[in-house]
Amino acid sequence: MSNRVQPPVEEVDQVDPAAVDAARARKEKIARYVGMLIFPFLMVSMMVTGYLGAMHAPTPHDLPVAVVGASQADATRLADALEASNPSALDVRVADSADQARALVTDREVVGAVVFSDSGEATVLTAGAAGASQASTVNQLLVPYAASEGATVGTDDLAPLPAHDSAGLGVMFMTTALVLAGYMPLSLILSAAPELLRKRRIYPLLAGWAALVSAVVWFIANPILGAIEGHTAAVLGICWLGVFAISCVQLFLTRIFGPLAVLVGMLFLMVLGIPASNLGMSVYTMPGIFSVLYTFLPSPAIGEALRSVLYFGGNGLAGHLVVLAVGALVAIALTVLVDALKRRKNPESALPEPTLTSFTGDRPQSTRARYATIVLFPLAMVMMMMSIMTSSMYQPSPRELPIAVAAADPAQAGRMAAGLDRSMEGVFDFQVAAPGDAEQLVVDRTVVGAFVLPSVDDPTATLITAGAAGMSQQQAVTTVFTQVAQQQGMPLTKQDVTPLGSNDTVGTVSMYLAIGWMMSGFMLIIVMGTAAPELLALRKLLPIMAGWAVAMSAVVWTIAGPIIGAVSGHAWQLIGIGALATFTISLFTAVFARLLGMLAVLPVILVVMFLGVPASGGGLSIYMSPEIFRVLHDVLPMPAAVESARSILYFGGDSVGSHAVTFLIWAAAALVCVIAIEWFTGRKQSTPPVDPVAEGRSAELVQRLT
């Protein structure tokens, strides 16, 4: 019998599969939550930084202009004097003749020209169809200079905007809609139907999609609204090429960046592309980088190609078409190359699995339903943008602007008001005021301007306005009453009681702050509904929304203030009202997210942006938009946000309380709706099932972000 001691048996660690699965689930859950916050944070930060940084204080720089003199020596002297008068704003060249100067302007090689004649006259040449704001800037710079040379100055618009698009915004909204249609469907396809991303399928689909969108955009812009006229074949061709080119580029970005391609596309197409487009504001008043981006981004190419056909007889069209065509071909070639490299590296690689099985957030949709949604969802966005935004802004016309007429003798003021009302029926809404009350009425925004008649002690009339209350309405009032004073033979003094600051020269900072708050509110809920729908339960949702609202309001202020310099001070006031606005929009979006899933974007964007922006008075005065928007101005959250920011920045916060009440009413109504939805559906006690594939993709998204 052996007494040998047996060696101890080493214990083998047993791995608990359940513990491994639980740890993986925790990591994936954290990844989804982090991605849910990072994605809207990046999108909002990008939009606010891009638009505010580019457009809060447009300043002329290097505007190419031409000078024609009575002789070559005289022209050289005049050109040198003009450049010396404002060297940073102008890039002056000498033209040989008036005809050459006209050709340079219509070819858009220069933005304006001044022609001096032997008889002591000077004519400033512009092309309004190349940009209304650009033509205005040229006149502001060249007319005073020509007058300082002792010339009698006249102006000549060589390519005026047509009466059916007097602001030149029809092309801008068409371009924006086409750009949106170009990049939006690819992210939907990647999430809901990645099998369509194979090259033999996707390119014919993109070509058909481009044709459909082009026809819809043209139909709304031309037969329905009349924002453009004629040139149907050329317009449809440009629209098709623009949408197809952008789609091809976005497809390539999707191959490289996956779900983050939508951020990259928005950066170059919207955040950088719209300021660089030269459509709303001249690219020569944007920061210098936009003059470079103007030469190769698709947004400027589409807009300028449409302008060329509609207003300049096709002059300059070829160059813009080349940009779009080359962009499409390069994107296709790069996509083919990337696919080949991926197959070489991993011959067994397959397309990603769908991470979105239902756009409505409940049971999975059939393949046919998902395909239909991929088409109808972006098509609805394009149609809403084109029909509502264009119709509200492309023909600004003053309607019933409230004006106070003041005089020491009330009877005199009444006679003047009655006479002006007869001659300008429907344009202004006149009321009689005492001279001592006129300024306060303007400061309170009860009226948009006050016309104080001369008196025995003061033979000069005074026009009182407030630039901070709206530049477009101030310009309209100033133009009209300057002419009235001239016709009446009255000397006129202009008084701006609340001027805009040097960091907000066009008065749009309030609007971009409000857009940042609105986007922060609805983007959180839209992303949450897809990445973490279990958090839509009200007891979880309320604290998340509250913390997010404060954090993002602080982020928006930090971007606008310390980073960009568009806002000086007012930190706590703006952060406070911004947090209330963001929280309100989040709660409003939650109502539709519980009912419609991802499709909640449509009603929310409709109310908050497509109706809210025209009704806000942030860009265009509500007295210059259709009547319905004046009604919406008093009830929608976007106008409340714009007016709150404007009041804080310029009017001592005088009306913030009433606008805060508007937010509270919307928030209370939304809260009641969410409670009712939870009570009826029973979702408060049940957590929606989580798609494990979606969890994996969310983890991949966070890995890419970090």
What key attributes describe this structure?
706 residues, alpha/beta, 5-stranded mixed sheet, disordered C terminus
Distance between the termini: 67 Å
Helix content: 55-70%
pLDDT averaged over residues:
89
Computed over alpha carbons, the radius of gyration is 29 Å
Poorly predicted spans: 683-706
What is the count of helical runs?
24
Widest beta sheet: strand line-up: 2-1-3-4-5
* Beta-strand percent range: 5-15%
What is the number of beta strands? Answer: 10
Quick one: overall form?
Answer: globular
Largest sheet entry: 5 strands, mixed
| Structural class designation | alpha/beta
Short description:
By secondary structure, the chain is of the alpha/beta class.
Describe the protein's architecture and organization.
With 706 residues, the protein is an alpha/beta fold. Helix content is 61%, strand content 8%. The protein contains 24 helices and ten strands. The strands form two sheets. The protein has a five-stranded mixed β-sheet, sandwiched between helices. The protein has a five-stranded mixed β-sheet with strand order 7-6-8-9-10, sandwiched between helices. Helix 15 links the parallel strand 9 (461-465) and strand 10. The longest helix is centred in the first third of the chain and has 39 residues, at 17-55. The protein starts with 16 loop residues before the first helix and ends with a helix. Mean pLDDT is 89; it is low at 683-706.
Question: What order do the helices and strands come in, and which of them pair?
Answer:
Elements lengths: L16 H39 L7 E6 L3 H14 L4 E5 L3 H9 L5 E5 L4 E6 L5 H17 L3 E6 L12 H23 L6 H26 L7 H26 L3 H11 L17 H5 L4 H14 L5 H29 L21 H27 L7 E6 L3 H14 L4 E6 L1 H9 L5 E4 L8 E5 L5 H18 L3 E5 L12 H23 L6 H26 L7 H26 L4 H10 L1 H5 L10 H6 L4 H14 L5 H26 L10 H14 L1
Parallel strand pairs: 1-2, 1-3, 4-5, 6-7, 6-8, 9-10
Antiparallel strand pairs: 3-4, 8-9
Helix pairs in contact: 1-8, 1-16, 1-17, 1-24, 5-6, 5-7, 5-8, 5-10, 5-12, 6-7, 6-12, 7-8, 7-10, 7-11, 10-11, 12-19, 16-17, 16-18, 16-19, 16-22, 17-18, 18-19, 18-22, 18-23, 22-23
